[in-house]
Design brief:
3 helices; 11 strands; alpha+beta; Cytidine Deaminase, domain 2
């Protein structure tokens, strides 16, 4: 069994799981693009009771805009990739977004909050509580910030 990071938010009773392997992939991608921001899409599935989100993989953008303090993911090819994952033998769905904050803490900026709010309210997105993973990254350290947009508010997940 793969090592898994488990998090929860007590206030809203939601849980999150992600493998160490996927976190290492995200870290390596961040270092590859360092010192600029970079990111992608989180995919996986929910538990039957909808209380636990299991993040399984990431999809990377074909096009994007990036600087030291900004990341904007393009949508080119994303819909087709998501449809393919949804129709797979073990279906995966869109769960949210991740991106790197180089040389900074993994705290959501106003732009981050605005972006995840737009995603939650977008008519073509079939998820009302998207996940936001922000990775604070230096060349030697990584700090994770997992958040969920739930009922018009951003909540932070904590380890347990």
């Amino acid at each position: 069994m793969k090592p898994v990071l488990k998090l929860k938010n007590e206030e809203i009773g939601l849980y999150l799981e992600i493998t160490d392997g996927l976190l290492n992939i995200i870290k390596d991608l961040g270092l590859k693009h360092y010192p600029k921001e970079f990111g992608g899409v989180l995919v996986g599935y929910y538990s039957i009771d909808k209380k636990t989100v299991n993040i399984i993989d990431t999809l990377l953008p074909v096009s994007y805009k990036s600087s030291k303090i900004h990341f904007e993911r393009g949508s080119e090819g994303l819909k087709e990739q998501l449809i393919e994952l949804f129709n797979a033998e073990q279906p995966l769905i869109y769960l949210g977004e991740w991106h790197i904050h180089p040389d900074a803490r993994p705290l959501p900026s106003g732009t981050d909050v605005e972006g995840i709010t737009e995603i939650a309210k977008h008519k073509d997105v079939n998820i009302t509580s998207p996940i936001l993973l922000i990775v604070g990254l230096t060349t030697t350290e990584m700090e994770l910030g997992f958040y969920v947009y739930f009922k018009n508010k951003i909540y932070k997940y904590e380890t347990y």
